[in-house]
Amino acid sequence: MLPRLEIILGPTASGKTAYAIGRALECGSPVISCDSRQIYREMKIGTAVPSDEELARVRHYFIREIPVTENYTAGMYEMQAMSLIEKLFAEGHETLVMCGGSMLYIDALCYGLDDFPEVPLQLREHLMECLRDEGPAVLAEQLKELDPVSYGELDLSNGRRIVRALEVCLYTGKPFSSFKTRKFKERGFEIVKIGLDVPREELYARIDARVLRMMDEGLEAEARSLAAYRDLPALQTVGYRELFDYFDGQYDLDEAVRRIQVNTRHYAKRQLSWWRRDPGIQWI
């Protein structure tokens, strides 16, 4: 029998942390986080990092390990998580528990990522400046000319995804989509995906309550301490973006909180839409 990796996934606020800790205690496993934001050291409150009590119950990996100033990618996560998983299985674990809601990170671990070329930092910075000055629509039109396939596949409201595709097109002279081989990498262990399914109204109520709890715990002060880094990839995150705009005077605090709640619900919908396409998930 192959060793088994259980991936506990689901939309934000669905109860993944508590469920994963319970499974880890049953299996004698640590919890391997698969969250693209909880890995940042300074983003504790706004990313719903497990509490000190939860972290004390079970060993966690990839929680608050790197500074926000360090660029961290799904490709780096794939390499480091695979190394950790192989090490833990070699130590004798028969079942490991992974927990997270980052769709791309989970796919990177399960299937592997295509090898995209490295792009000069100057080109990326130039495109990010264009994104800030002109908005995603202008860059999306340029991408449409260079790579209509990617234009049709990407979320055109996500400026950073557009920049990533466009920079590869401009640097290589080839469409970004041409680098997608879609060849899944073989893994030497069984992968079982368990999705937590929460009724929509209950999920939204949980999200709204959690945002209010984060504010009570000091999310505003945490965001103020990170405002100098607001343009970094790590801070392009719901909960921080809205407060940065509040600091700029675009609206009052009540409106910022409302927007965090609304945008978090939108994110949960995108997570569910992504995973509903995967027939291999066992929903409970």
Which structural traits does this protein have?
Helix Hairpins, globular, Rossmann fold, 12 helices
Number of strands: 6
Content of β-strand: 5-15%
CATH top level label of the largest domain? Alpha Beta
The share of residues in helices is 40-55%
Q: How do the strands line up in the largest sheet?
A: 3-2-4-1-5-6
Q: What are the segments in which pLDDT stays under 50 over at least 5 consecutive residues?
A: none
* Major β-sheet annotation: 6 strands, parallel
Class by SSE composition: alpha/beta
Report how far the terminal alpha carbons are from each other: 25 Å
CATH architecture of the largest domain: 3-Layer(aba) Sandwich
Helix-strand pattern, N to C? EHEHEHEHHHHHEHHHHE
Per DSSP, the total helix count is: 12
What is the count of structural domains?
3
Q: Can you tell me about this structure?
A:
This protein is of the alpha/beta class. It folds into three domains: 4-114 and 186-198 and 273-283, 3-Layer(aba) Sandwich (Rossmann fold); 121-179, Histone, subunit A, CATH 1.10.20.140; 200-269, Helix Hairpins (Orthogonal Bundle). It is 51% helix and 9% strand. It has helices at 16-27, 52-57, 74-90, 103-111, 121-134, 136-146, 148-153, 159-172, 200-217, 219-226, 241-247, 253-276, and strands spanning 4-9, 31-33, 60-61, 95-99, 190-195, 281-283. Helix 2 (52-57) links the parallel strand 2 and strand 3 (60-61). The two termini are 25 Å apart.
Topology readout:
Blueprint: E1 4-9, H1 16-27, E2 31-33, H2 52-57, E3 60-61, H3 74-90, E4 95-99, H4 103-111, H5 121-134, H6 136-146, H7 148-153, H8 159-172, E5 190-195, H9 200-217, H10 219-226, H11 241-247, H12 253-276, E6 281-283
Parallel strand pairs: 1-4, 1-5, 2-3, 2-4, 5-6
Helix pairs in contact: 3-4, 5-6, 5-8, 6-8, 9-12, 11-12
